[in-house]
Amino acid sequence: MAFSRDDIIPPMSTSSYDTALCIIPPASQCRHVDGLREVYDKAYGIWPPHINLIYPFVSPENLVQAQQQIQQCLERELEANDATSLELNEVGLFKHQKSSSIFLSEAQDTSTSFLGTLRQLCLESLGQKNARVDFHLTIGQVENEILLLEAFLLAKARLLPSLRFSVGALAILIRECRAGTNASPSMRLWGIVDIPTRVDVWKPQCPEFWIPHHQSASFSAETEQEECDAWSGKEGNAFMHFQSGPTYAYDAGSCNWVICTSFENDIASACKISIASYNIKTDSEYPPERDREPLVASNILSDTALADILVLQEVSDDFLSYFLNDTEVRKRYRFASHGPPDQLDIGPLRSMRNVVILSRWSFRWSSGPFHRKYMSPRHKGALIAQFMDLLASERMDLVVAGVHLTCGLTDGSVAAKHNQLKRLTGYLAENHASSPWIVAGDFDIATSAYTIDPAPKAKSITEQTAVLLSSLESGLNQAGLADAWSIARLEGKLDITMGDSEESYDGEAGATFDPRNNALAADSTNTFENRPQRYDRIFVRSHEALRVGHFNLFGVQSIASDHYGVRATLHITSPSTALTEPFAETARKMKVEHKEAATALSDPISLQSMLYRQDMIPTEKQMEVRQQAFELLKNVVLGTIDKQDHASSGVSLNMVAVGSYALGVWTADSDLDCLCVGSVSSKTFFKLVRQRLARARNRGIKILRKVEAKTGTMLELSVDGISADLHYCPAARIAERWSEFHGLSASDPIFNLPALSLRKLKSYRDFLYIQRTLPSLSAFRTAFRCIKLWAVQRGIYSSKFGYLSGTHITLMLTWICKKLRYQSGSVGPPDMVVSFFSYYANFDWTNELLFDAFFHESRPRYHRSAREPMVILGYHAPHSNIAHTSTTPGLQILMNEFRAAADVLSSPGITWAKFFGDPSSLKDSVQLHLSQMTEHFLATQHSFVTVEMQYWGRTLAKGKGLVGWIESRCLSLVVDIHKMLPELEVRIWPTRFTNDKADLKELKEYHGCYLIGLTRSETSRSSNKKESQLARQSLEKVLDRFLTQLRTDDKNYDSSTSWVDVSLAKPFEVRTLRLDNREWGDHAADIDPDSDDDDDFDDEGAEEDEKPLERTLPQRPKPTAIPVSTSKLRPASDVLNRLRWDPGLDPSDYIIGYEDRFLGAKEANLDKWKTEQTDEEFIPQHRILYFKKKGGDDGKGELVWERATRLDKVFGSGAGPMDRRYNL
Question: What is the pTM of this model?
Answer without folding.
Answer: 0.79
